[in-house]
């Protein structure tokens, strides 16, 4: 079936498929963990049942999204040893410890407190449970910190030495590797994108329930909090994206050339090409709709600043312009759409019509998945724009792959596609099923079971064997200790 197909291409497709599936779950859980911490903090501060109901409502959704993110991440990491063993061998001394730090800090932090967060509200004090929620939120951020440090080093490698066997070894300072030139910008841009992704999901769910019943207090609170986030964070994200673009121009100029569609150099100011069809054979953007000199103004803050084009780059080092050009425009377009919705919500709030303007609610519902599309488009821009290198200017992607035949890679790719769509499709369907139901007074949260967690070894004590266990209380009595 795969005879004659390039094994490298199949390996790249497989990694792109698995990382795209994986990336949408952390992008959601990073923001949702912080949202849960805010909800529980507001409940502790105000004592309002509304915040506790929303906390338990979104806690169920977080548990599923977090689990799918962990599973998809484990599968993805195995490919470093299967399809990309040369990369693992050459870059392992630098990449390996950074990924190990992510496990030893973030993953252990999340794993240690996740059980308390999900099941411990009736079994520990309110403050201790809130501390557990905060630790999970911090853990998601720390995880993003290390993973982005790894990827940023691959984009802007510094602080390394080349060993006698050709491996990249850490130099005198790990701090130089961790805080490489692109890392701070990518961390801010990506984490902010995760917060916006969650905000628009929460806003979309709130809008869905407002369209069905505009008097729904839970939906009102969700929608209001989400629109505040959109109005405040979307402008910050645009500024962060601009700073990230300037940093990319300094360290990865050909990526920016592909993003802008600049096949030719512009010594007297480069135009901003809004739309067009990149043609790498003819070295031009066909049917280009452009604004003169605006690209120079955005990238160098000077209308007449010169910008180099892909004509200064050897053909075998040019990234695939068409993919990068369009993925970048999708990301930017969605970013400005988010800003527009945030400003629209401010106008509605100012006129005290936030819960009455149905077209605003419909727009928020349509925009609910926009964050996922934007983060994937941004990730594609970053990764495809780095080509033909897997470690920028050091290791080519073609030289990093394992010596595998196409049928072997293709068979695993087909298996991944089938399993992912079945398993994660079911998970996403269940999340949407939960979102379809409106939060209500006395929300139950994550179900634990009447007899507590299942034990995998030893004897499971019954109620009479452990009468002091809160899980043995009658259901109505247990619910009475729910903190309400």
From TrEMBL:
At the top of the EC hierarchy, this enzyme's class is: oxidoreductase
Keyword Transferase present in the record's keywords: the answer is no
InterPro entries referenced in this protein's UniProt entry, alphabetically: Cyt-d_ubiquinol_oxidase_su_1
Entry keyword set: Cell membrane, Electron transport, Heme, Iron, Membrane, Metal-binding, Oxidoreductase, Transmembrane, Transmembrane helix, Transport
According to the UniProt entry, what is the EC number of this protein? 1.10.3.-
**Major location, coarse class?**
membrane
Q: Which GO terms describe its biological process?
A: aerobic electron transport chain
GO cellular component, alphabetical, reads: cytochrome complex; plasma membrane
Residues passing through the membrane, by range: 20-45, 57-78, 98-121, 128-148, 192-211, 223-240, 323-347, 359-380, 409-432
* Polar residues composition bias: residue spans: 462-475
Name where it's found.
Cell inner membrane; Cell membrane
MF terms in GO: electron transfer activity; heme binding; metal ion binding; oxidoreductase activity, acting on diphenols and related substances as donors, oxygen as acceptor
Domain of life of the native organism: Bacteria
Q: Which family does it belong to?
A: Belongs to the cytochrome ubiquinol oxidase subunit 1 family.
Q: State the PANTHER family in the record.
A: CYTOCHROME BD MENAQUINOL OXIDASE SUBUNIT I-RELATED, CYTOCHROME D UBIQUINOL OXIDASE
Name assigned to this protein: Cytochrome d ubiquinol oxidase subunit I
Organism, scientific name: Qipengyuania citrea
């Amino acid at each position: 079936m795969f005879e004659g197909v390039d094994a490298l291409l199949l390996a790249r497709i497989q990694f792109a498929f698995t990382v795209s599936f994986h990336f949408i779950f952390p992008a959601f859980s990073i923001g949702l963990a912080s949202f849960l911490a805010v909800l529980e903090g507001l409940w502790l501060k105000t004592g309002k049942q509304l915040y506790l109901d929303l906390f338990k409502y979104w806690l169920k959704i977080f548990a599923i999204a977090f689990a799918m993110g962990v599973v998809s991440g484990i599968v993805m990491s195995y490919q470093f040893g299967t399809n990309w063993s040369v990369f693992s061998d050459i870059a392992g001394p630098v990449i390996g410890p950074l990924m190990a730090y992510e496990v030893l800090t973030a993953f252990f932090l999340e794993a240690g407190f996740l059980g308390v967060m999900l099941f411990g509200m009736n079994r520990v004090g309110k403050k201790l449970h809130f501390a557990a929620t905060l630790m999970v939120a911090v853990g998601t951020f720390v995880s993003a910190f290390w993973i982005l440090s790894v990827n940023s080093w691959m984009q802007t490698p510094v602080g390394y030495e080349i060993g006698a066997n050709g491996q990249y070894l850490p130099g005198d300072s790990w701090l130089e590797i961790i805080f490489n030139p692109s890392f701070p910008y990518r961390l801010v841009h990506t984490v902010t994108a995760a917060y916006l992704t969650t905000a628009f999901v929460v806003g979309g769910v709130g809008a869905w329930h407002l369209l069905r019943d505009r008097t729904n207090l839970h939906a009102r609170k969700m929608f209001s909090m989400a629109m505040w986030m959109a109005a405040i964070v979307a402008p910050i994200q645009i500024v962060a994206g601009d700073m990230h673009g300037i940093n990319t121009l300094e360290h990865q100029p050909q990526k920016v050339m592909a993003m802008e569609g600049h096949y030719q150099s512009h010594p007297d100011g480069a135009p901003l090409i809004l739309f067009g069809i990149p043609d790498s054979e003819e070295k031009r953007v066909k049917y280009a709709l452009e604004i003169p000199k605006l690209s120079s103004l955005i990238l160098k803050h000077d209308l007449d600043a010169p910008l180099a084009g892909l004509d200064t780059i050897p053909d075998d080092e040019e990234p695939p312009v068409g993919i990068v050009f369009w993925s970048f425009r999708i990301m930017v377009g969605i970013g400005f759409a988010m800003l527009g919705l945030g400003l629209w919500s401010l106008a509605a709030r100012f006129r005290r019509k936030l819960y009455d303007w149905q077209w605003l609610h419909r727009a928020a519902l349509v925009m609910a998945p926009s964050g996922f599309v934007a983060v994937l488009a941004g990730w594609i821009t970053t990764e495809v724009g780095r080509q033909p290198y897997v470690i920028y200017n050091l290791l080519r992607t073609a030289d990093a792959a394992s010596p595998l035949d196409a049928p072997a890679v293709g068979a695993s790719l087909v298996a991944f596609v089938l399993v992912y769509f079945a398993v994660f499709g079911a998970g996403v369907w269940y999340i949407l099923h939960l979102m379809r139901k409106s939060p209500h007074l006395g929300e139950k949260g994550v179900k634990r079971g009447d007899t507590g967690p299942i034990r995998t070894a030893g004897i499971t004590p019954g109620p009479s064997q452990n009468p002091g266990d809160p899980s043995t209380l009658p259901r109505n009595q247990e619910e009475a200790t729910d903190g309400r």
